[in-house]
Amino acid sequence: MLSRIPHPARGFTVAELVIVMAVLSILVALAYPSFRAQWLKGRRTDAHNALMQLQQAQERWRADHRGYASAAELAAPGTSANGHYRLSVHAASTTGYELRAEALGAQQSDAGCRIIGLRQSEGALQWLAGHDLASLAPAPTARRCWPT
Protein backbone atom coordinates (compact mmCIF):
# COMPACT_ATOMS: atom_id res chain seq x y z
CA MET A 1 0.00 0.00 0.00
CA LEU A 2 1.23 3.44 -0.83
CA SER A 3 1.91 5.68 2.08
CA ARG A 4 0.66 9.18 1.96
CA ILE A 5 3.09 12.00 2.35
CA PRO A 6 1.67 14.49 4.84
CA HIS A 7 1.04 17.94 3.37
CA PRO A 8 2.52 20.86 5.22
CA ALA A 9 -0.03 23.03 7.00
CA ARG A 10 -1.33 25.91 4.92
CA GLY A 11 -2.20 29.42 6.07
CA PHE A 12 -0.76 31.80 8.59
CA THR A 13 -0.31 31.40 12.27
CA VAL A 14 -1.62 33.98 14.69
CA ALA A 15 1.95 34.98 15.52
CA GLU A 16 2.74 35.68 11.86
CA LEU A 17 -0.39 37.81 11.51
CA VAL A 18 0.50 39.80 14.63
CA ILE A 19 4.00 40.46 13.30
CA VAL A 20 2.64 41.63 9.92
CA MET A 21 0.13 43.92 11.64
CA ALA A 22 2.88 45.39 13.84
CA VAL A 23 5.10 46.11 10.83
CA LEU A 24 2.20 47.71 8.95
CA SER A 25 1.33 49.84 11.97
CA ILE A 26 4.89 51.13 12.19
CA LEU A 27 4.95 51.95 8.46
CA VAL A 28 1.65 53.82 8.69
CA ALA A 29 2.83 55.75 11.77
CA LEU A 30 5.95 56.83 9.89
CA ALA A 31 4.17 57.73 6.64
CA TYR A 32 1.11 59.57 7.99
CA PRO A 33 2.83 62.84 9.05
CA SER A 34 4.41 63.18 5.61
CA PHE A 35 1.10 62.43 3.91
CA ARG A 36 -0.70 64.98 6.11
CA ALA A 37 1.90 67.68 5.38
CA GLN A 38 1.55 67.12 1.63
CA TRP A 39 -2.24 67.14 1.92
CA LEU A 40 -2.19 70.52 3.72
CA LYS A 41 0.32 71.89 1.23
CA GLY A 42 -1.90 70.81 -1.65
CA ARG A 43 -4.90 72.58 -0.14
CA ARG A 44 -2.93 75.86 0.01
CA THR A 45 -3.59 76.11 -3.72
CA ASP A 46 -7.13 77.14 -2.78
CA ALA A 47 -5.71 80.21 -1.02
CA HIS A 48 -3.21 81.00 -3.78
CA ASN A 49 -5.89 80.91 -6.47
CA ALA A 50 -8.27 83.06 -4.43
CA LEU A 51 -5.57 85.64 -3.68
CA MET A 52 -4.54 85.83 -7.34
CA GLN A 53 -8.17 86.39 -8.35
CA LEU A 54 -8.49 89.16 -5.75
CA GLN A 55 -5.23 90.69 -6.96
CA GLN A 56 -6.51 90.75 -10.54
CA ALA A 57 -9.79 92.29 -9.35
CA GLN A 58 -7.82 94.99 -7.49
CA GLU A 59 -5.83 95.82 -10.61
CA ARG A 60 -8.98 96.00 -12.74
CA TRP A 61 -10.54 98.31 -10.12
CA ARG A 62 -7.40 100.49 -10.06
CA ALA A 63 -7.54 100.88 -13.84
CA ASP A 64 -10.88 102.72 -13.47
CA HIS A 65 -10.43 104.46 -10.09
CA ARG A 66 -7.86 106.53 -8.20
CA GLY A 67 -7.06 103.83 -5.67
CA TYR A 68 -7.57 100.24 -4.67
CA ALA A 69 -10.87 98.82 -3.45
CA SER A 70 -12.22 97.39 -0.23
CA ALA A 71 -13.66 93.89 -0.19
CA ALA A 72 -17.18 95.33 -0.42
CA GLU A 73 -16.32 97.48 -3.44
CA LEU A 74 -14.82 94.45 -5.18
CA ALA A 75 -17.81 92.30 -4.19
CA ALA A 76 -15.18 89.80 -3.09
CA PRO A 77 -16.28 86.37 -1.90
CA GLY A 78 -15.97 85.69 1.83
CA THR A 79 -14.23 82.36 1.36
CA SER A 80 -12.01 80.68 -1.19
CA ALA A 81 -13.54 78.47 -3.90
CA ASN A 82 -13.18 75.26 -1.88
CA GLY A 83 -13.97 76.93 1.45
CA HIS A 84 -10.62 76.23 3.10
CA TYR A 85 -9.80 79.93 3.65
CA ARG A 86 -11.59 83.12 4.72
CA LEU A 87 -10.63 86.02 2.42
CA SER A 88 -10.20 89.67 3.37
CA VAL A 89 -8.85 92.95 2.00
CA HIS A 90 -6.89 95.23 4.35
CA ALA A 91 -5.34 98.68 4.09
CA ALA A 92 -6.69 99.47 0.62
CA SER A 93 -5.43 102.93 -0.33
CA THR A 94 -4.35 104.90 -3.37
CA THR A 95 -0.92 103.24 -3.34
CA GLY A 96 -1.53 99.66 -2.26
CA TYR A 97 -3.46 96.98 -0.41
CA GLU A 98 -3.06 93.77 1.57
CA LEU A 99 -4.98 90.60 0.83
CA ARG A 100 -5.26 87.76 3.36
CA ALA A 101 -6.47 84.18 3.30
CA GLU A 102 -6.99 82.76 6.82
CA ALA A 103 -7.26 78.99 7.19
CA LEU A 104 -10.58 77.44 8.18
CA GLY A 105 -11.44 73.99 9.52
CA ALA A 106 -8.85 71.25 9.15
CA GLN A 107 -6.54 73.62 7.27
CA GLN A 108 -5.87 75.45 10.57
CA SER A 109 -3.46 72.65 11.48
CA ASP A 110 -1.11 73.96 8.75
CA ALA A 111 0.96 75.59 11.49
CA GLY A 112 3.27 78.07 9.75
CA CYS A 113 0.85 78.87 6.92
CA ARG A 114 -2.46 79.53 8.68
CA ILE A 115 -2.52 83.01 7.14
CA ILE A 116 -1.32 83.52 3.59
CA GLY A 117 -1.29 86.97 2.05
CA LEU A 118 -0.14 89.44 -0.55
CA ARG A 119 0.91 93.03 0.08
CA GLN A 120 1.11 95.45 -2.83
CA SER A 121 2.66 98.77 -1.95
CA GLU A 122 3.74 101.38 -4.49
CA GLY A 123 4.21 98.78 -7.22
CA ALA A 124 6.12 96.27 -5.10
CA LEU A 125 4.51 92.91 -4.33
CA GLN A 126 5.34 90.92 -1.19
CA TRP A 127 4.22 87.39 -0.35
CA LEU A 128 3.18 87.00 3.28
CA ALA A 129 2.58 84.05 5.59
CA GLY A 130 2.44 83.18 9.26
CA HIS A 131 0.65 81.20 11.91
CA ASP A 132 -1.17 84.31 13.21
CA LEU A 133 -1.33 88.05 12.51
CA ALA A 134 1.56 88.81 14.86
CA SER A 135 3.85 86.43 12.96
CA LEU A 136 2.77 87.49 9.46
CA ALA A 137 6.07 87.91 7.62
CA PRO A 138 7.24 88.52 4.04
CA ALA A 139 9.48 86.24 1.98
CA PRO A 140 11.89 84.49 2.45
CA THR A 141 10.13 83.39 5.67
CA ALA A 142 6.88 83.07 3.75
CA ARG A 143 8.46 81.23 0.82
CA ARG A 144 7.58 77.75 2.14
CA CYS A 145 3.88 78.66 2.09
CA TRP A 146 3.94 79.66 -1.57
CA PRO A 147 4.54 77.38 -4.57
CA THR A 148 8.03 77.46 -6.00
Record field, number of beta strands: 5
- SS field, number of helical segments: 2
Beta-strand fraction estimate: 15-25%
The portion of residues assigned to helices is 25-40%
End-to-end distance? 78 Å
Strand order within the widest beta sheet: 1-2-3-4-5
> What's the shape?
rod-shaped
Structure explained in plain terms:
This protein has 148 residues and is α+β, with helices and mostly antiparallel strands. The protein has a domain at 44-145. Helix content is 37%, strand content 20%. It contains 2 helices and 5 strands. It has a 5-stranded antiparallel sheet with strand order 1-2-3-4-5, with helices on one face. The longest helix is centred in the first third of the chain and has 51 residues, at 14-64. It is rod-shaped, with a radius of gyration of 26 Å.
List the SSEs and their pairings.
Layout: H1 14-64, H2 71-74, E1 85-90, E2 96-103, E3 115-121, E4 124-130, E5 137-138
